[in-house]
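Structure record:
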Amino acid sequence: MASPNVSSDPSRTGPQPAPKITVDLVDVLVGNEDDASLGASVSDISPRTCSAPTLAILSSDLEPQGTSPNSLHNLRPPSRSSWECSATQYSSTDGPSRTLSGATTFSNMSNLNASFSVSQCASGSHEAIFSVSVETLEKLLEQRTIADFDALGGLRGLANSLLTDCHSGIAADTDSVTSDGSLPNIASHTERRRVFGENHLLETKSKTFLYLLWLNFNDTVLLLLSAVAVVSLALGLYQTFGQPHKPGQPKVEWVDSVTILTAVLIVVVVGALNDYQKEKQFAKLNRKVCYKPWTTSTKTDSHEQKADRMVKAIRSGRSIEISIHEVMAGDILHVEPGDVLPADGVLVSGHNVCCDESTVTGESNPKRKTPAHLITDLLRPITPDDDPDPFMISGTKVLEGLGTYLATGVGLHSINGKLMMSITNEEPRPTPLQVKLTAVANQIATAGVSVAVFLFLALFIKFLWGVGWSQGLPSDGNLYVHTLLRITIVSITVVVIAVPEGLPLAVTLALAFTVTRMLKDKNLVRVLSACETMGGATSIFCDKTGTLTTNRMTVVGGLLGTKHQFGAKLLSRDTQLVYPHGLSELHAISTNKLISLLSEEVRYTLSQSIVINSTAFESEENGRPTFVGSRTESALLSFARERLGIGPVAVERTNAQITQVIPFDSSRKYMVSVVNLGGVFRMYMKGAPEVLLAKCSRIVKDATSDLDQTAPVNDYYDLLSQAMHHYSDQALRMIGLAYQDFPAYPPPGVGRIDDEPGQTIIDDALQDMIFLGIFCIQDPLRPGVEEAVAKCQYAGVTVRMVTGDNIGTATTIAKKCGILEPHSVVLEGPAFRMLSKTEMYQVIPRLRVLARSSPEDKRVLVMRAKELGETVAVTGDGTNDGPALRMADIGFSMGMSGSEIAREASSIILMEDEFSSIVKAIEWGRAVNDSVKKFLQFQLTVNITAVTLTCVSAIASEREEPILTPVQLLWVNLIMDTFAALALATDPPAPSVLDRKPQPKTAPLVTIEMWKMIIGQSVYQLAVVLALNFAGSKIIQDIGTEDSLKTLVFNTYVWMQFFNQYNNRRLDSNLNVFEGILTNWYFIGINVITIIGQISIISFGGNTLSAVRLSPIQWVISLVLGALSLMAGVIVRLIPNELLRSISAKLGSICLSEEEDDRF
């Protein structure tokens, strides 16, 4: 092997580039899984110089065993290629610095702290190879630890791994080079996108209407109905067209099955239309309130423009604007206040960069970012919790500061992207009501088939008995076939009657009606079944920031001068602030009143101190004016605009003659600005009150009088300390204001900054300041939260707070909301994680606040609560709430302030971000459950009576025919059921709907009150109808012909169902069945239609409907017997539940136990 040619210029001084080594590389030998070393050899020298792309390989990624995806194990270039190497130095903990040249064998490279580059020269194009994998970058941003960052070689190592430069970025195109011209960039844009992905997500395809039809058809009851209807249709067609009929007899045997199929079709279409409408509404909401950082679109309207916004990037050393869809791993991106980060990354440079990560972590306090190049061993804190944070998370918002950051994760590989994809393509889980309805439908189907089989056998045996066994089969074969067919049709009719075809329709109509009404209450239902699930909710797990609070810092009170405290709520009755030395009491007045009493001089000083001493600026968000920057400064500026009457902030600052500004610094805890007022220089100071008080010698005495009336601050120091302690106990953020006037600036005796005329060493000037007061800032509760929490608790729904904030702030907010109750448990996330599953089961019933929690804590808490049998609702607005929203039975998200991931994961969206809307959701949820139960109670009564009448009358009939003809059963079983479903499903929530506890998942669908009404009404109706059928001519004189008697029986039966609708408007023992009836115009209208339809059938039905006209006396008899159903309902409700409970216990019934019934 020949030695390489090394050339250098010894005459040059200063830093020199690494000497060039030109070799012909035959092969690169790297350690495999069985080798403990990594090696490279160069042989067969054939000197050749070429310009080639450079491959930067991070040495810290080279692991001894060669098992790392980032190691040289994957770097096997084609043999006999010419390579140009830059010999660079590397340092190892094992020994001194060495120079890499020629053939080198590497061992124990895990501690290596340098990078080297190899340039491949080839005539053809080759794939660029990055020395860091997508999985490694994902883990880096998920864990966000400095140790992982160090393992990748820090900022320089990470940049080299991504083939980028922290100053000049990636190449603007494949032929560009970096700013110094020394590192040509081999990674084409196509290659970067192939390896690290593109910055967009695949947009979820909207479900087609045909697919929604198929989903709605896949229901147990609908499938059973369809099967029965098909069999019935086949028999009906044969009977209609293949069998002889009497003169005038209608050929309508097929109609019953067709109407059943029509009912199925109505249910499927209505359900699909509902789903389609809510999908469109959700898409409209998404376009209105948010942008989708990754979704590609060709539309150019204002909403879609948000989806394809422009960001500033550095490429080839120049700042350019690119679409967020063009952002790639390795890009250097600019950030400024108001930006929403389009990708994950690491902060490269910047000053005072602060991000709002509440949507990801749940912590309301802004997160200050440290440039990655400043993170060294000397700056490293001792405790891991205080680690500097250089990590930029996609989807979070920059509040203040300017800087650049290195993009490491885009699209599907970013934190926001992964969270978005994790909540898509999940199949909806069946709700408790759906489970119970399926069980009831199966029981009814089993009972119906059993009765049909029994009836068939009974009629068949009767037929055989009638023709006589001794005589053998009848000689007339057609008679045998006709009789057998008639028996089969009657049996099938029993199944048709028994199956509650109106039940799916009732559920669909109830949900459709509820969705429409909830939308008027600003609740957008995305998952239809969530309506009824919310009615059984037993627990609500809510986030603090953005859910209970507004997520908008606001001035809620404070102290001005020595006499006034504003914001009366801050001064509780048991915490009075009393002056020492017998001075006058502090006046606690409302903010509006104090503002009206302020002197003009004090008002001006306060407003200018706030405006000049801030860096936040005005902007617009969702069509509303807002401030962008520090949340604290935004709160003060909002107060100044709304209370002190300032003009546009930019104009105010332009008009001010600012002499010197000292920005806020976390180490100093204050900001100072000096303004020339025309002969007088005024210094405004803003910061932590305790810091300002140390710089002040006097305090404004009375904010309602002249500004120059001051008093020694030491005389009021105890008062101010007591006030600050009181505010601190309420988790309020305090900002102090102070000022001082100078006749000249810089003032004499104050040190000056070299090379900056007019700029002073500010600490020297901060003496004898005059204290103005303290402003208390807080993320306030949303309006109506306290009342909504109280209503939830009254309704038996436990409200729990799960937040990423500290335990002090969380506890304070929980107390204000009324969440904390006597003997409640308050835990922090780390302590919760230490609990075993059994301990969690013991703690959760009393747990009310979980602070410092992670998204995983929230998800586990929801899962454990569900395992305890609770129906769990989760509210949230942040990205971090996505997993818990999916895990919950019902997920609520905020429509305006919520993140897109939260909305995608939720089942109901609170469109105006009002927590009080949840109470409306509970009311409507219980109304849906009640509507379904009302109809089920009505349907079971009709089914029991109709099946019993059919069986008894068919067996008793000489011709094996039921008392009610198929067409009459059509009217009773379909039209009446359908109308009743619409009538009973549209009742709005009753005022007393929150007076009862939520229904547990284990409770049976039919309660003991329902069983009372079903059995009582069935007994009454069967007694009346059977009496009229078998003894009507004896009971009622001049009843008329047999057809008149049958029509009277049919008419009486229909009116009993009509009046029984009113009985079913209540599910409790209350006797007032007409409560709220005038508020439901659907019910009234349907009753009118039913009356008109029944009168028309009796008057004009004729032979087609097997009805004849009735006399006035017969009409009176029918209506009176029907109206007596109301009296029967009163009697049933007066029967004690304990009596039926004891009977059901003896019979082994499935009715409620005493404990279960008491919960309603």
